[in-house]
Design goal:
It is built from 4 helices and 6 strands; from the N terminus they run ααααββββββ. By secondary structure, it is α+β, with helices and mostly antiparallel strands. The chain has a domain of about 55 residues: Nucleotide Exchange Factor Grpe, Chain A, domain 2 (Roll), CATH 2.30.22.10. The strands form 2 sheets. A 3-stranded antiparallel sheet has the order 1-4-5. A 3-stranded mixed sheet has the order 2-6-3, with no helix packed on it. α3 packs antiparallel against α4. The protein is elongated, with a radius of gyration of 40 Å.
């Protein structure tokens, strides 16, 4: 039995050698064919060589152009999809605050104490502010008494300054401004002193 296994192993080894030899022969034949083609190519005239090179370059150009067009279309579509869904996160985070407002309205229908109503509204308001802060939205605060800044503020009116030191400075804030990161998303509407 062991002799049969040894014979099978020897037979398989000889078959593998034959397959490898066939691969070597095939590679040698391919190399000879390529050298024949190379030796024939000098017989081509310069015009034929140039024409062949132009055709190859045209083919490369068309392939690159089509790849670029596909890339441009794909990125354009991705950008549109991103713009459509960019606000999805913030909307999902604000929806619970809207639910809280609805619950507060229902609870306040029978309530007569204004302090309790105000306290409930303040809780919901603070929850909304915290949600926006978690998304990077910040309120522009402490503007009164500081110089007017056209980069972050919008002067809606100018009144005589109550004192000499308030000229050109913010006297009152009509509407708060907000930033998101470093970008102003709403300019503060202010009254300046003249």
């Amino acid at each position: 039995m062991a002799e049969k296994e040894i014979m099978k192993d020897e037979q398989m080894a000889s078959e593998e050698k034959e397959v490898k030899q066939e691969e070597v022969d095939t590679a040698a034949t391919a190399a000879e064919n390529q050298s024949e083609q190379t030796s024939q190519s000098p017989e081509l005239s310069k015009e034929e060589k140039l024409q062949q090179e132009v055709e190859e370059l045209k083919d490369k150009y068309l392939r690159l152009y089509s790849e670029f067009e596909n890339y441009r279309r794909r990125t354009s579509k991705e950008r549109l999809d991103l713009i459509k869904t960019a606000s999805e996160d913030i909307v999902k985070d604000v929806l619970p605050v809207i639910d809280d407002f609805e619950r507060a309205f229902k609870a306040n229908e029978n309530e007569t104490d204004g302090a309790i109503i105000r306290e409930g509204n303040q809780l919901v308001f603070h929850k909304l502010v915290k949600t926006l802060e978690s998304k990077g939205v910040k309120v522009m605060e402490d503007l009164i008494g500081k110089p007017f800044d056209a980069e972050t503020q919008e002067a809606i009116t100018q009144i005589p300054a109550p004192s000499e030191e308030l000229k050109g400075k913010v006297i009152d804030v009509v509407e708060k401004g907000y930033t998101m990161g470093e970008k102003v998303i709403r300019y503060a509407k202010v009254v300046t002193g003249a």
